[in-house]
Amino acid sequence: QFIQWKTAGDAICHGIYYAPVNKDFQAGEGTKPPLLVRAHGGPTGHYFADLNLKLQYFTSRGFAVLLVNYRGSSGYGRVYRDLLQTKWGICDVEDCCFAVEHLAKEGKIDPEKACIDGGSAGGYTK
C-alpha cells in the first residue's frame, strides 16, 4: 500500500506499507504488529513495489514492513530529491521516526516494537 505522512516542517514523505499476512495465523485480539522500517541506500535511491521474498518472510511471521522513500529519494521529482542536500542524516532519520508515529496513530502497529534496517546509505539511518 502506497502511503504518505507528514514529517518535520510539515513536509510530505512517501513509503510502501506491507501489513502482516499469514493464512495460518491470527494475532490475538487487541494486539498490534511489530514494525520493520527499511531505509534504502543511495542515499538518493528509492523503493518500488515488487515481489520481494525477504519482505514476505517478515510479513508472513507477523511483522508489518514499511519501505521509506525519505526526502531525497529519487522518483518524486527533483525538488523532492534536493530536499536531502546538506541534510543527509537528518531528513532520512526524521522521516523514518515520523513514519512510526504515523502508523501508530493509525492503529496499524505497536510503536514499542519498531526496528529499523537498511543497507549502504540506509544502514546509517539508525
Give the helices and strands, then pairings.
Layout: E1 2-6, E2 12-18, E3 35-39, H1 53-59, E4 64-69, H2 78-82, H3 91-105, E5 114-118
Parallel strand pairs: 3-4, 3-5
Antiparallel strand pairs: 1-2, 2-4
Describe the structure in your own words:
With 126 residues, this protein is of the alpha/beta class. The chain is 21% helix and 22% strand. The protein contains three helices and five strands. The protein has helices spanning 53-59, 78-82, 91-105, and strands at residues 2-6, 12-18, 35-39, 64-69, 114-118. The protein has a five-stranded mixed β-sheet with strand order 1-2-4-3-5. Strand 3, helix 1 (53-59) and strand 4 (64-69) form a beta-alpha-beta unit. The protein starts with a strand and ends in an 8-residue tail after the last strand. The relative contact order is 0.26. The mean pLDDT is 90.
Order of the strands making up the biggest sheet: 1-2-4-3-5
Secondary structure class reads alpha/beta
Based on CA atoms alone, the radius of gyration comes out at 14 Å
Give a short account of the largest sheet: 5 strands, mixed
Shape: globular
User: What proportion of the residues is helical, as a percent range?
Assistant: 10-25%
Query: How many β strands by DSSP?
Result: 5
The string of secondary-structure elements, in order, is EEEHEHHE
Low-confidence stretches: none
Strand content: 15-25%
- CA(first)-CA(last) distance: 24 Å
Average per-residue pLDDT, rounded, comes to 90
Number of helices: 3
